[in-house]
Design a protein that fits this description.
The chain is built from 10 helices and 8 strands. The protein is globular and about 50 Å long. It has an 8-stranded mixed β-sheet with strand order 1-2-4-3-5-6-7-8, sandwiched between helices. α9 links the parallel β7 and β8. It has one domain: Alpha/Beta hydrolase fold, catalytic domain (Rossmann fold, 3-Layer(aba) Sandwich). The longest helix has 16 residues. With about 280 residues, the protein is an alpha/beta fold.
Length: about 280
């Protein structure tokens, strides 16, 4: 496929998927005091169904919220997963470093209430999912260190390498904005960047799959390959003829792969009551 054709297909795909009507959740709950510290909940019919926590993309910015992932969350509930669609503070609002990371850590540590959870993140949400899976590798005196990781991580077309994101100027300075400015990037990377963490400390030990489309026009393919090389415990899956957004489009062939991978990541995991 030519570069022009990829761009045209990507624009159509983005408009189609992000134009899906939001789905209202059966339940909405808070995990903190800030208005953005909330989550939407789609309980599966089976109270012991595996739990999946969805982390939305939008390059960590306050201009984007969780609603574009609500069709996927509802779809996963219909496929037998209890879906938790998380909101968190974002750059441009009350988030960025450290607030965004505080929220992800707090949500992962408290919402499941001891129940195993697989994290599913798309794009910059994939970055946050990979980061949450690597928290055991952070220094023990870090505010985000924990010995207890998620049951698994499924990162969809994730931003894995903030240095690469800054070099390629993804979404016009989004990674610099997340980290609070260029003068703070070097000091914060070891605590905020999954690629930097695993390259320095080794595999996370958390079952991890990085799934991407071979025709992704949003995130450079090197982001996926380089992370998988740095964490040999991570599985890299590439879908031919697939772009950036089809992965989160309910009913698409790519979404069927997402469900298959979630089924594998949650296999033989005990469920529990609805959070």
């Amino acid at each position: 496929m030519s570069e022009t054709a990829i761009r045209e297909t990507a624009a159509e795909e983005e408009a189609r998927v992000l134009g899906l009507a939001p789905v209202d959740p059966p339940l909405r709950r808070a995990y903190g005091d800030h208005p953005d510290q909330v989550y939407d909940l789609w309980p599966a019919e089976d109270p012991d169904a595996p739990m999946v926590m969805l982390l939305h993309g939008g390059y960590w910015r306050d201009a984007y919220d969780r609603t574009h992932l609500s069709p996927l969350a509802a779809h996963l509930a219909g496929a037998g997963f209890t879906s938790v669609l998380l909101e968190y503070r974002r750059a441009g609002g009350a988030g960025g470093y450290p607030g965004t990371f505080d929220d992800i850590a707090l949500a992962v540590d408290t919402i499941p209430a001891g129940r195993p959870v697989v994290l599913l993140g798309h794009c910059s949400g994939g970055h946050l999912a990979l980061w949450a899976g690597a928290r055991a590798l952070l220094p023990e005196d870090s505010r985000w260190h924990t010995a207890a990781g998620p049951a698994g991580v499924l990162a969809l077309a994730p931003v894995t390498d903030l240095v690469g994101a800054i070099k390629d100027d993804l979404s016009t300075g989004a990674a610099v904005e997340l980290l609070g400015g260029r003068e703070l990037v070097a000091a914060r990377l070891p605590f905020a960047d999954p690629f930097t963490i695993v390259r320095g400390k080794g595999p996370t030990g958390v079952p991890t799959v990085v799934l991407h489309g071979a025709e992704d026009a949003e995130v450079p393919l090197s982001q996926f390959r380089d992370y998988a090389a740095a964490d040999p415990g991570a599985e890299l899956v590439s879908l031919p003829g697939t772009g950036h957004y089809t992965l989160i489009e309910p009913g698409s062939p790519a979404c069927a792969v997402v469900i298959d991978l979630l089924t594998r990541l949650t296999a033989h995991r005990p469920g529990g009551s609805t959070p």
